[in-house]
Amino acid sequence: MAEVQGPVHVEAEVVATKRIGGYRHLTLTAPGVPERFRAGNFVAVTVEGHVARRALWVHRVRASSSFGPTLDVVVESRGAGTAWLAAQPVGTRLALTGPLGRPFALPKDAVSCLLVGEGYAAAPLFPLAERLRERGCGVSLVVSAPDEARLLAALEARRSARSVTVITADGSVGQRGTVADHVDDLLRRSDADVVYAAGPTAVLRAAAGAAERAGAWSQVAVEVPTPCGTGLCHGCPLPVVGEDGVDRVVRACADGPVVRGDRVRWGAV
Amino acid sequence: MSAFDLGPVMVAAGCGGTGRELAAYCGPDGLDGLDLVTRSITLDARAGGPGPRIEEVPGGLVNAVGLPNPGLEHFLATELPWLVRAGARVIVSIAGATMGEYADLARRLSRAPGVAGLEVNVGAPDEVGVGLFEVREPYHSASVIAAVRREFPVDRPVLAKLRPDVSRIVEGARSCHEAGATAVVVGNAVPAAFTDGRSGGLSGPAVAPVALRCVTEVHRALPELPVIGCGGVHDVRSANAYLDAGATSVQVGTALLHDPTTVARLRAHFATPRHVSTQEDR
């Protein structure tokens, strides 16, 4: 695909919709967006009758399909807006802006990487795993969830990952516990130089902490509500320490969602 | 430059990011020729308030963002030159805790190349909460405007942005006009509360009828004073409502958070110098 930059605001169309566990996966056409997408980017969509937009993680991008290039987003019904989105049938048209935010940075060399995600927010790790594999990086994937219904399908990731570990809080599948319980051990076993994390704050904090203890780099995709998604409203504050050592509050959408794990002031999030 | 030279469609303070983020949605010319009011700049950097800063309500957003900005120094060194290079006509929104701060801001901005005008934020919905100079009475805003006007060249506009409080708006507009404001921006977030009780301001389509009433009253009482309508503008129809009520321009704010292309679309529609409302627009 040709190298194109910057987000676009387009009319997307739902071309497939599928319930997987507790989530709804929508496949969308959105002219220009799949071509520009990099792992870690997200999209913002308009929900009928709502002023604020809904930010969605991209789980998969297909360069071609019978509908042309498409992207799959994961929707968790958490309120009126996401419930409306999850209920949209094939053929629904949505105003969509994307790809938004800073993507994951990829290592130059073929190093080992540990990818840690929880719930639907683990989605950006799947396209990341594919990119890493293309670069010859060894990928160890850890997918966690409160229960089996909220576990983002890890099966398809077996193509790109050399190992897949599943953790559920209730032990319904895989190891019982939380990411924080297991991440140091998993990092040691994977011998990874880079840790990538996506999910709720507790997971990101645990992954960033483990990376720091092991002397590895970490990048985390933060999950905070973004009223506009585009950087215009300053409504998604993320407390960080700048490269110059000065405390700052940046915008999670425009200055993130991917930031270095050791730069986040976790106690202030 | 008088207020009448301002384009019919402007970007409202606090809704255009740093300007860079908006450029992607403004077509091939980007920000060229766009009248852009910056987010409010203060002398010192401000981190802004804690989250959640924005809550969605029917027809709008309640917000308490807390005026995050990098401070005047950093703005002058980085953001302003970028905006000027991009061709934007930059109206810098300023906010201060004292009249002295407003005067300092105006003086230093008067020397910065590319500042087309100032907008003085004298109607924030929660000025006490964010530590701004408190404007309860018209003479408070008038004294701020006078302090700014003394420090800023007369050939460049000073806009006074007022709270859309219909019982006080005409007095407030008159005082600012007499104190030297080139025009008044009528409409700002309406004082409101989050569901958890914190103070904030309501903006979006829900406040349009409130601001429209204020614009109508100000234009009727002070027909010689240019009025810029601000509040809930999101399409041709809502913009025309303000222009028909006597506003010379409109500012687009919250609509950009919903659809970042709004300002480009409205600018294209109002590109002709004199707009004519047709039945189709309504």
Automatic annotation (TrEMBL), chain A:
Keywords, in A-Z order: 2Fe-2S, Electron transport, FAD, Flavoprotein, Iron, Iron-sulfur, Metal-binding, Transport
Annotated family: Belongs to the PyrK family.
Positions annotated to bind [2Fe-2S] cluster: 228, 233, 236, 253
Organism of provenance: Nocardioides glacieisoli
Keyword presence, Repeat: no
Cofactor annotation remark: Binds 1 FAD per subunit. Binds 1 [2Fe-2S] cluster per subunit.
Positions that bind FAD: 81-82
Domain FAD-binding FR-type: 7-106
A biological process term (GO) from this entry: pyrimidine nucleotide biosynthetic process
Cofactor section: [2Fe-2S] cluster; FAD
GO molecular function: 2 iron, 2 sulfur cluster binding; flavin adenine dinucleotide binding; metal ion binding; oxidoreductase activity
Name under which the protein is recorded: Dihydroorotate dehydrogenase electron transfer subunit
UniProtKB/TrEMBL annotation, chain B:
Cofactor: FMN
A Gene Ontology cellular-component term: cytoplasm
GO BP, sorted A to Z: 'de novo' pyrimidine nucleobase biosynthetic process; 'de novo' UMP biosynthetic process
Dihydroorotate dehydrogenase catalytic domain location: 7-265
Transmembrane segments: none
Pfam families: DHO_dh (PF01180)
UniProt keyword Transferase present: no
Pathway noted in the entry: Pyrimidine metabolism; UMP biosynthesis via de novo pathway
A molecular function GO annotation: dihydroorotate dehydrogenase activity
Alphabetic keyword roster: Flavoprotein, FMN, Oxidoreductase, Pyrimidine biosynthesis
SUPFAM superfamilies assigned to the protein according to its UniProt record, in alphabetical order: FMN-linked oxidoreductases
Protein name: Dihydroorotate dehydrogenase
Organism name: Nocardioides glacieisoli
Phylogenetic classification of the source organism: Bacteria, Bacillati, Actinomycetota, Actinomycetes, Propionibacteriales
